[in-house]
Amino acid sequence: MHLKKIRPARAGDLAQVVAIDAAITGVRKARYWAGVRRRYQRRYGGDFLVWEADGKVQGYIVGEVRDWEFGEPPVGWVFGIGVRPGARLGGVGAALLAALCASFRKRRVATVRTLLPRDNALVLAFFRSQGMMAAPVIPLEKALD
Amino acid sequence: MSAAEIAAKYEVSSHHLAKVLNRLARAGLLRASRGAGGGYRLAGNARRVTLMDVIALFEDIGTPRRRGAPPEELALDQVLEEIDATARATFRSITLDTLRKLVARAKR
Question: Which class in CATH covers the domain with range B1-44?
Answer without folding.
Answer: mainly alpha
